[in-house]
Specification:
13% strand, eight-stranded mixed beta sheet, alpha/beta
Length: 305
């Protein structure tokens, strides 16, 4: 699947990307805009988001708008989707990119631990709320940004989906707890991909997932501390020098999955650095997928069959 022609002219295409203000999301938005797409940048970082929007509009031929949204709030996700529906008659690509890592256990306004709220529940809800628009725009694509961190843990604890037990003390930071919460969130992204792909069969809407690579040099790690942050900085520095873990390299896969004509009918597939990659066997567990889906439906009110 590598080496295929990628669409250069995206004039008329509407693409929404969450977490589009910085890092890989920003780089992806810029490339898609440079090919003529209209990009909806969604983020909670207003200053960075407006800078990215302005840069795309100045460079042309594409265009961009910025929409502030704290994705950890389900109400704000609903408001975002309503705004998209009211202002657009098509959506060609939805890129569910936003994510966090935070050693401090925080909860959203809805009471969900923030890795779970931002990485999984927000995108579960947003995808469902925009699904009719995606179907009307078919062939269209949904792209989940997962990670090989999905392989780096024991999986979901269905007795602790809100990650209460990961932090031994809720008032103290823990890099280990944060990484396990991130592991669970990224595994949830793949469960969602597989479950949604089955439901989208025959609609012309595909859904695939991406691993951006290891320790990509973005601001997602900014809240980490201690030896974890020290190690990350060493890896960032080494990788950046050799071009191994830059946002630009990772964004190539985002762009490929969003635009490559050869991938129009490819679905439920996991990619890293523009190549198909195997997920863990755990990520393909149908029972766990169903349990997470049913729980997510209960929490968000979306996705009931």
């Amino acid at each position: 699947m590598t080496g295929a022609v990628v669409a250069d002219d995206l004039t008329g295409h509407v693409i929404l990307i969450t977490g589009g203000a910085r890092g890989m999301g920003c780089e992806t938005a810029r490339v898609l805009g440079s090919r003529g797409a209209h990009v909806i940048i969604v983020d909670w970082e207003g200053e960075a988001g407006t800078r990215t929007r302005d840069a795309i509009n100045a460079a042309r031929p594409g265009s961009a708008v910025f929409r502030y949204c704290d994705l950890s709030s389900l109400d704000e996700v609903r408001e975002l989707a309503a705004w998209v529906d009211a202002n657009y008659d098509r959506l060609d690509v939805l890129i569910n990119n936003a994510g966090i890592t935070d050693p401090v256990r925080r909860v959203s306004l809805d009471g969900f631990e923030m890795h779970l709220a931002t990485c999984h529940l927000a995108h579960f809800l947003l995808t469902h709320l925009l699904l009719d628009l995606l179907k009307r725009s078919a062939p269209s694509r949904i792209i989940m940004i997962s990670s090989d961190a999905h392989k780096a843990g024991p999986g979901l604890d269905f007795d602790d989906l809100n990650n209460e037990k990961l932090w031994k003390a809720h008032d103290k930071p823990s890099n280990g707890a944060a990484f396990q919460a991130y592991h669970r969130a990224k595994l949830s992204n793949l469960y969602f991909m597989h479950s949604m792909a089955e439901r989208l069969a025959g609609t012309g809407v595909t859904i695939n997932a991406i691993s951006p690579g290891y320790f990509v040099n973005t601001s997602i790690y900014r809240n980490m501390s201690g030896i974890f942050m020290l190690a990350a900085r060493v890896v960032f520095g080494f990788g950046t020098v050799f071009g191994l873990n830059t946002p630009q390299r990772s964004a190539k896969t985002y762009v490929k999955l969003a635009t490559d004509p050869a991938l129009e009918q490819v679905t439920a597939t996991y990619f890293e650095h523009e190549k198909v990659k195997e997920t863990s066997a755990q990520a393909q567990d149908p029972e766990a997928r169903k349990r997470l889906w049913d729980w997510s439906v209960t929490q968000t009110g979306a996705g009931a069959d």
